[in-house]
Design goal:
Length: 171
C-alpha cells in the first residue's frame, strides 16, 4: 500500500498546530475520518506557558507539558506529563484501529529522535493501513526525522504558508 507522508514544518510559534487543526477540520468536512493528536499551546502574558494534547477523533483534551515543571521528561524549559503521553499514544492507536483516512501527529521533534514521546506510535502508524500521515516538525529536525522514521518513504514537505496544499490528498 502506498502511504502519503506529509510534513508540515516551521519554527516554534509559526502556526504549525493551528494549521494542522484547520486541515483536520476541513478534511473532516469532506467526509474523511481524521484521527491523531495536536498539542495547542496555552499562553500567559504573551508567553507559551503550557501545552494540552487533543484527540482529533473526539476533541478530548489532556494536560501535556508546562514551563518550569519538574518532570523526568524535559525539552527546553518544558516538563512533560507521562499521563499526557499515554493519552496521546492512545489517541493515535485509536485512529489506527479505526483506519482513519488521515493521522496527524503534532509534533515530532527531539524526544522522538531519542525514541521517546510519540516515536512508538509514529512507527505503528507507518506500519498500519492508514493511507496518509501528517506530522508537524521544526526545520532543524526534518532530515533526522526522515532518516529515522521514513527511510523507505517518499515524503512531501510543506511550510506553514503552503499547508493548504495538503488538501489535494483529500478530493
Amino acid at each position: 500500500m502506498n502511504k502519503n507522508i506529509l510534513i508540515l514544518f516551521g519554527p516554534s510559534g509559526s502556526g504549525k498546530t493551528t494549521k494542522a487543526m484547520e486541515l483536520a477540520q476541513k478534511i473532516c468536512q469532506k467526509g474523511y475520518l481524521v484521527g491523531g493528536i495536536v498539542a495547542p499551546g496555552i499562553f500567559f502574558e504573551n508567553k507559551r506557558f503550557s501545552f494540552d494534547i487533543v484527540d482529533l477523533m473526539n476533541q478530548q483534551r489532556c494536560f501535556l507539558a508546562r514551563r518550569d515543571m519538574a518532570s523526568s521528561i524535559n525539552i527546553g524549559p518544558f516538563g512533560f506529563s507521562h499521563e499526557g503521553f499515554s493519552f496521546g499514544d492512545s489517541a493515535i492507536q485509536k485512529a489506527i484501529s479505526h483506519k482513519a483516512d488521515l493521522i496527524i501527529i503534532d509534533e515530532i521533534g527531539p524526544l522522538e529522535l531519542q525514541n521517546q514521546g510519540w516515536a512508538k506510535s509514529l512507527r505503528l502508524a507507518c506500519q498500519s493501513e492508514v493511507a496518509t500521515i501528517l506530522i508537524t516538525s521544526r526545520p532543524g529536525t526534518m532530515e533526522a526525522i526522515r532518516e529515522i522514521f521514513f527511510p523507505d518513504y517518499s515524503i512531501i514537505s510543506y511550510s506553514v504558508e503552503d499547508a493548504s496544499q495538503c488538501l489535494s490528498f483529500f478530493p
